[in-house]
Amino acid sequence: MQVQFCGLTLDGCVYNASGPRTGSSDALAKVGSSKSCAILTKSATLLPQNGNPLPRTYTSPNFSINSEGLPNKSIDYYIDSETIKESVLDSGKPYFVSISGKSLDDNVEMMKRICKAPGVAGIELNLACPNVIGHPIIAYDMVQLRSALKTVASLSLPLPIGIKLPPYFDFIHYQKAAEIINEYKSTISYIVTMNTVGNTLMISPHSGSPVISPKGGYGGLSGPAVKPIALAQVRKFSELLDPSIDIVGVGGVQSGQDVYDMILCGAKVVQVGTCHWIEGPKCFDRIVEEFEEICRKNGVKELEEIRGKLKEWSKKGAALDRQGRKSEPKTSAKGGAKFQSTLDDSSFLLLSVAVVVMIQVLLVMLAQALGHLDVPAVAQFMDNLKA
Fold first, then answer.
1. C-alpha closest to that of 110 among 96, 118, 100
2. Where are the domains positioned within the chain?
3. Cβ atoms of residues 3 and 268 within 8 Å
4. Range with the poorest average pLDDT among 5-9, 95-99, 165-169, 324-328
5. How far, in Å, CA of 195 to CA of 128, rounded?
6. Dist CA 39 CA 21 (whole Å)
7. How far apart are CA 387 and CA 380, in angstroms?
8. Mean pLDDT of all residues belonging to the chain
9. Catalytic residue among 6, 129, 265, 283
């Protein structure tokens, strides 16, 4: 299904987030050859950066933490004609450039350079990175946010501009951010919500120390655990922003159902980050196919049929939810692993050995109690059991 996004026609609604596996033309070409509907670069800075000290990433089945510190090859690399050619290849997919300068002046300079480079479809301005040591998150400071957007508006850039936002946790912050963004609706084509949940901490039970090195172990939380937070961002901003501003939903997306949920909340398109990092670019094929199957089952032919159509809570809906959950596989208390009602082969073997030993002991005790022990008979009986 085609989607109209910030003036562009996309063949789908799922593409990559800026992050791991997006730093080189080789990595981006793999995204382009998948069912991702667009290509987005690593967040660029004016000069190349190595990023924070290693280890700076940690993954688990339910969440990931990173404090990469924006490692990248510089803006000049990502807007170079050869890089774009090698990234897009024959896919013809829109090529977006993400930027995250150390200052507003850096961002202005990079945006000017991008607009001079042919082949770039749009700019994603990251105002939400929590992992640069010594630098605040711009979009949490409403004065800075307004100043940044005012400066961007003064440039009158010819390309679509999107801004990446951090997660907000208070309705008043949603409202203030939305008010500022709406003031510049003629400049801002879309928002990307959300970046990682900043400054979280995970401790290894084996070492008693943080699982990553930079910033004392503090890093941005992503992956399945943040999906409820991301859905809330998309839903609330869809209620507050001017309809002309598109919403890109990102956070915890790892399945077709996750994409469907994002669109129900009001997302125009959806980005995939942590799942791409862990699973690789094949995740886009799987997620898109799952999403298309869900749409077929629900009779959805156009995404506008479901976009922003999240239903209100009702007793009927709650009953359907309970019924649906009963049909799902049960989960254990630890880690959400599927409960196994049958023993695996190794467990069955151990149990069998234990039963044989117990029978042997009982026979010996019985024989002793009767005052005699027919060893050959016992041996023959045990051989029969083993057979």
1. 100
2. 3-313, 345-386
3. yes
4. 324-328
5. 6
6. 11
7. 11
8. 90
9. 129
**What one-letter code names the amino acid at 43?**
S
Strands (E), 144-296: 161-165, 188-193, 197-201, 218-222, 246-250, 269-272
Q: Which two tokens stand for residue 247?
A: 């919403």
Q: Which of 61, 15, 21 is nearest to 39 (CA)?
A: 15
Q: Which amino acid is at 300?
A: V
Show the beta-strand stretches assigned E in the chain.
Answer: 3-5, 8-10, 14-16, 39-40, 57-59, 64-66, 95-99, 122-126, 161-165, 188-193, 197-201, 218-222, 246-250, 269-272
Phi, psi of 297 (to 5 degrees): -65, -35
pLDDT score, position 374: 52
Q: How far apart are the first and last CA of the chain?
A: 61
Note the pLDDT tens digit of each residue in 191-248: 999 999 999 999 999 999 999 999 999 999 999 999 999 999 999 999 999 999 999 9
> What are the CB-based long-range contacts (under 8 Å, 24+) for 296-300?
none
Do 254 and 245 form a contact (C-beta atoms < 8 A)? no
Res 5: pLDDT = 98
CATH number of 3-313: 3.20.20.70
Residue-level pLDDT at 340: 41
**Is 265 considered catalytic here?**
no
User: How far from 293 is each of 9, 329, 369, CA to CA, in Å?
Assistant: 22, 20, 69
pLDDT score of 135:
73
Q: For residue 163, what are the β-bridge partners?
A: 125, 191
Q: Quick one: what percent of the chain has pLDDT higher than 70?
A: 84
Tens digit of each residue's pLDDT (9 = 90 or more) over 237-269: 999 999 999 999 999 999 999 999 999 999 999
